[in-house]
Structure formats: structure tokens, C-alpha cells
Amino acid sequence: MTDALPPAIPAATLVIFRDTPAGPPELLMVERAKAMAFAGGALVFPGGRVDPGDHALAAVLGSPDNETAARIAAIRETIEEAGLPIGLAPMPSIQAFERLRAALHSGTAFGEALADTGTSLDLETLEYFARWRPAHAHARIFDTRFYLARLPADAPAPRVDATENVRLFWANAAHILAETDAGRATIIFPTRRNLERLAQFVDFDAAVANARVHPIRTVTPWTEIRDGVEHLCIPDDLGYPITSEPMSDAVRG
User: Which of 3, 35, 155, 178 has the fewest CB neighbours in a 10 Å radius?
Assistant: First the structure.
């Protein structure tokens, strides 16, 4: 039962697609600083906690619900962490966007920073893709909504914030998985499962179509013995091509 699960921190993350001339789309990944308590040294999508300010802005927009606050958080965190103007309309100039990012880093409320920049939020540019809420014994459990977004054609080059994250890069999902399998990168269990699902899509539109076919149901992995080996498992009806992994291989943050 959900009410028996340990408390979780609401969070949101953004999977950003960049078209390529040939081949599968690239995704933006950030590498967490090794000193971070959660997923230290791992590759993740941009994102973070849903803050009280995100709920406050959702209320100002007339939608004081968790879903709206999560979308706001995904956009805000992507601006702060990666310097990308996703979900903004109209698209601000480079100079205005830099002022917006600097204002967020200095602690200015998101709504105030948007107003000062002369732009607003377009939450419909985000497509709800998945929701994960682990239940293992860990100091920090996150209830994370995953959203998809297309990189705007006139977006600036992303730049890492150099605080929680130490680098960022673009790569297709299959390449990220191959780098991990070769021991050159680390990803936690939810990131791996989502990358495997994302690797199926030839473009952003295909990913959106898949997201709309599968209803959003919170994924809470469980352990199960299969062929004498303990596995970490997820449901098999949510669009994920691989739904279990030996516990000895799983990285859980």
C-alpha cells in the first residue's frame, strides 16, 4: 500500500531531446558531483526537488496542484543546472536569459525573475513520461516525475552550474548505456530503465507517442527471486523493454 511507504521528497526531471542530422536523437545528461549525498558521481537528467516556491508559482498561475508545481520545478532546475531555456514563452534574448539564470542562482523567486525578464512559462511544452518512487531503505527517497521536452532551435549552448553537477554532454541513449556497461559511467536503476525505454525511439515525436499510449502509474521497484537470483523488478506494462535486473548489478543511488 502506498501509505505504508516511507516519506518521499517530491522531485521533477527533464529529458531534453536534440535532433541529429542522422541517427537517433541525443539527450542531455549531467554528471553529479561525487560529494553529493544522492547519486554522487552518477549521470542523470537535469532536475531536482519541487520547492515551496514552485507550489507558490503554481497557485499564482491558477493551478495549485502537484503536477503543475512539478512542471515548474523541472523547468526551473533545468535553467539553474544546465542553462537551457526550456518551457519559456516568448523565448528571451541570450542576455535576458542570463539575467534570469543569475537571478535564480541568487535566490530570486522564479515568478519574479520571469517577470523581470519579460517572459512566462509554457508548461505544455513538457510531456509527462513517467513517475518513479523507490521504497528502499535510503536517507533520501525521491518521488520523481519525468518529463520530455524538445530543445528549442534557438536555445543557447548548455552550461553546467559547477555546483551539484560537474559536467554535461549530449549523447543518444544507446551510447550512454554502452558507456555504462563498459565501466566508464555510472547510472542508477531508474535512469537505466528510462534510458532503455528512450533508446527505442527514433525521434522526439515517437517518444511522445509512446508516453501517451502508456498511462502514468508510479513505479516503485520491488525485489523478487528469479531463477534463484534476487532481482530488482518493475511492472511489465508501462513501456519499459527491460523490467528486472540482478540486485548485484543494480545501482540504487
Answer: 3
**Residue keyed to cell 527514433:** 202
Query: Which whole number is the average pLDDT over 211-222?
Result: 95
The radius of gyration of the chain's CA atoms, rounded to the nearest angstrom, is 18
Q: Each residue of 81-131: pLDDT tens digit? A: 999 999 999 999 999 999 999 999 999 999 999 999 999 999 999 999 999
Prediction pTM value? 0.94
Cell 535566490 locates to 107
